[in-house]
Design goal:
The chain is α/β, with parallel strands linked by helices. The chain has 2 domains: 116 residues, Rossmann fold, CATH 3.40.50.11860; 75 residues, no CATH class. The protein contains 10 helices and 7 strands. The strands form 2 sheets. The protein has a 4-stranded parallel sheet, with helices on both faces. Helix 4 crosses helix 6. The longest helix has 18 residues. It is elongated.
Length: 233
């Protein structure tokens, strides 16, 4: 899930003041931001109170099911079209993907109320850890399911740095070195001899902007089926 944190409130106010926005609609996210306690119902109501304390009017608010889902967000915008039309701006409490999705669904100025921090694992309720950078060139097959690119602060691929001491990380001194964990797990699985040297990362594999079209193959398949049908007539 995408972990977010609240943006500086002064910056949000500056954004609104730059366009003279006195009326604001607030949009949240029912998935990641709700779980992270940054963009659920409670957080939207808190933002509403803070805006009203400054003399601004909140024309309405909504927590969509998934802010980054284009169809669902457009539907949510239509459901609240009157309140959004009455607003000068929309404040979005979600990750950057959700902010952009809301911006596509309305012609009103849209401003982010959160900062996207990282792709996180849910360790326990309310506790999140970054374990993947979505680099597009995964090495988890040779590092026993522990990502050194992310969990090592220096991103080292082939063993600890010279600052590692007694198995602990030089940078995050209360954390065990990622490569100590990797080597221990490989040893437990009897895979040390097979590890070898991890080659340099191919960062060209992370193309921006990323795009995956799962419908393309099916559409091609339907086209071929229709061609066969036409040929058989």
């Amino acid at each position: 899930m995408i972990i977010t944190r609240p943006r500086e409130w002064d910056r949000i106010i500056r954004n609104l003041d730059e366009i003279g926005a006195r009326k604001v609609f607030i949009m949240g996210c029912g998935q990641c931001a709700t779980v992270a306690r940054t963009g659920g119902e409670d957080e939207l109501l808190e933002a509403k109170s803070k805006l009203e304390e400054q003399g601004r009017e909140v024309t309405g608010w909504a927590v969509g099911e998934v802010a980054c889902h284009s169809g669902g967000t457009r539907l949510e915008a239509r459901r609240n079209s009157g309140s959004i039309d009455d607003a000068d701006a929309v404040l979005v409490l979600s990750c950057g993907a959700g902010v952009q999705t809301v911006a596509d669904a309305t012609n009103k100025p849209v401003f982010p109320g959160l900062e996207s921090a990282f792709l996180g694992n849910v360790v326990r309720h309310g506790i999140f850890e970054e374990r993947c950078q979505m680099c597009g060139d995964c090495v988890l097959d040779v590092t026993a399911g522990i990502c050194p690119v992310t969990t090592c602060p220096k991103g080292l691929l082939n063993g600890p740095c010279g600052g590692m001491w007694a198995g602990m990380c030089e940078v995050l001194t209360d954390h065990e070195c990622a490569h100590v964990r990797i080597r221990r797990r490989l040893a437990e699985q009897g895979r040390i001899a097979a590890q070898g040297i991890v080659p340099p990362k191919d960062f060209s594999a992370k193309l921006k902007p990323g795009s995956v079209n799962l419908r393309q193959g099916r559409e091609r398949g339907r086209k071929r089926d229709s061609d066969i049908g036409e040929a058989g007539r």
